[in-house]
Sequence to fold (321 residues):
Amino acid sequence: MSTKETTPATSKAAQEAAPTPLIPIPRGPVPQAPPERERRTVEITIDGQPVSVPEGSTILEAARKLGVDTPTLCFLESLTPVNVCRVCVVEMEGSRTLVPACSRKVEPKMAIKTDSERVRLSRRMVLEFLASSVDVSTAPQFAGYMERYGAQPQRFGPTAATVKQPVKIDNDLYVRDYSKCILCYKCVEACGVDAQNTFAIAVSGRGFSASIATEFQVPLPESACVYCGNCIGVCPTGALMFKSEYDMRQAGTWDERAQSQTTTICPYCGVGCNLTVHEQEGQIVKVTSPLDHSVTHGNLCIKGRFGWQFVQIEPAESKTE
Fold:
């Protein structure tokens, strides 16, 4: 019975490919993602300008490619569009109704108007309805949209129905102020299949009685919440807010103009999540995560988002001096 002789070259290659204490699995080729499938392009017209985008793109993506600033409130690149705020609606030739730009897919030879009088009227009415019933004082985009479309919510008078209610403070990490909630569903999506898969919050009730709530309206510590804070990261109005930010706003010390932001890597594990540390007067006031980061996409865990207080604890030696 003959055996195949092993040459020195073959033996050396086998040794180099063998597992080691540092690399306890056989070495092999580095896995590579398959090439992205080529998509045919679709040509449409937006505000009289032709544009070509890949098949499956939305009107919003096509508009952004042309540099058209389309307002959005319930839309976020990392979440599934839910079409509820209706601020991004545009006029499409041949359509009886205005269509949501954030979710409507492009079709060949579409003709879109993003700033017609009909579109401006619709957006102005949506903004007025929201601002007359919801506290939008901590919604950073809202004031600009109101000025842009000439919205005047005060015309509904001081007796306009509102969603005003007490702030829910039942934990030390974040507060829920549903008087600022516009029912954009971003928090529900982030808590659900789009990110966390915890399903601690959802839409409760129907119609005018709809609201965001925990299961059976239980306090947050008794719910399924894992305190990742991803709902805070996507909230566009401040209805969900860091407890640290809320306390500073109540005390009148919150000043975003005096804050600096530093991006770093979370020290708790080896995943490599990016953190954006917000600092004011030498103190960390909150931590967020970049939406465009390839690892986190804006999401963090409880440690990354809330576990920074140890940085500000004075050493025991300094206290005794």
User: Anything to note?
Assistant: The longest strand covers residues 259-265. Residues 40-162 form a domain with the Ubiquitin-like (UB roll) fold (CATH 3.10.20.740).
